[in-house]
Amino acid sequence: MTLDQLLDYALSKSEVEESLPFGPEVLVLKTNGKMFLLIPLDADPLRFNAKCDPERAEQLRAEYTGILPGYHMNKKLWNTVLLDGSVPGALVRELIDHSYELIRAASKKSKPKSKSKTSK
Questions:
Q1: Which sign does the torsion angle of CA 37, 45, 64, 67 carry?
Q2: Disulfide check for 86: which of 36, 66, 90, 91 has CB 3.0–4.6 Å away?
Q3: Of 98, 112, 106, 94, which Cα lies nearest the Cα of 34?
């Protein structure tokens, strides 16, 4: 997967925005204002950080040499995925989806519920 393919896939999701909050070297993709992918633009091979369920994160790391604890992230909750051919493309897309859905679900839980006003 190339950088363009990675971005095309991730940006096709609803309510995704790009930013460079850590400088021009790291592209951050957010949904609802929360990060779900971090992509170091100068990495060789291309890689990205994605949030992951902790149990699944450990399982994936044991199974794939191209899935590592999240670089500069909470190692329990984030993986670094190397796009060096060791992780199948379908799994790469699934991990992007999983990270996106985890962040979307957390965002929905953290939004305050509006109080309804009752008329008298």
A1: negative
A2: 66
A3: 106
The domain in which residue 25 lies consists of: 3-105
Residue 76, token pair as written in the block: 């329990």
Do residues 89 and 9 lie in contact, with contact meaning Cβ atoms separated by under 8 Å? Answer: no
Q: Do the beta carbons of residue 52 and residue 75 sit within 8 Å?
A: no
pLDDT digits (tens, 9 = 90+) for 21-68: 999 999 999 999 999 999 999 999 999 999 999 999 999 999 999 999
CATH, residue 32: 3.90.1150.30
C-alpha R_g of the chain: 16
Global pTM value: 0.85
